[in-house]
Structure formats: structure tokens, C-alpha cells
Amino acid sequence: MAKEAMFTLKLEPMLRAQFVAAAAAVDRPASQIVREFMRDFIEQQRAAREHDAWFRGEVAQGMREADDPGVARIPHEAVAAKWQEKRAALLRQADQDGV
Asked: How many helices, marked H, and strands, marked E, lie in the chain?
């Protein structure tokens, strides 16, 4: 990749000295490490945007389903009873296993 632009930033002298020393300790140019940090940051932001878009889509779908009168509803009591049964079964199993 051709190096076509300079990037100048202000740093505290101690931070710069520590960073340059840490880069030298691993035999790598500080500029290479900064480029990697930048690429990682760009990738993290892209992944965060994709996740946010996916999550918003899931929420929107859930809201559409919640507003749809044709979607079958499960009463809270039925869900609570089912989980109470599952919990009781797990407790029985734990007792049998000696946990």
C-alpha cells in the first residue's frame, strides 16, 4: 500500500516516549503499530455498526410481531408454570446426582 498521506497528532511527551520505547522493544516501527491500531479501530466500528443494524432489525421485527393480532400469544401463567416444572426437574436431577 502506497504511503500517500502524513498524519500528525499531538501527544504528551511521556506517552510518546513510552510508546516509542515499547515499539522498539518488540522491534517494530511505531508507525506500523499505529496503522494497525487504526485498522483495528475501523474494523471494530464497522462490526459495531453491523451489530447495531442487526439488533435494531430484530427489535423492529419483534415489535411488528407484538403488534400483529395474528401471532399466537402464550399466557404468562403458562410460561411461568413450564419454567417452574423445568426448575423442579433440574432440582430433582441435582439431588440424584448429589450436587
From this structure: 3, 0
Q: 7 CB contacts (<8 Å, ≥6 apart)? A: 34
Contacts of 86-93 with C-beta under 8 Å, sequence gap 24+, read none
Domains of the chain, residue spans: 11-68
Q: What is the pLDDT of residues 23-65, one digit of tens each?
A: 999 999 999 999 999 999 999 999 999 999 999 999 999 999 8
Q: Rounded to whole angstroms, how far apart are CA atoms 39 and 17?
A: 23
Largest Cα–Cα separation, the chain: 70
Task: Name the amino acid, one letter, at 66.
Answer: A
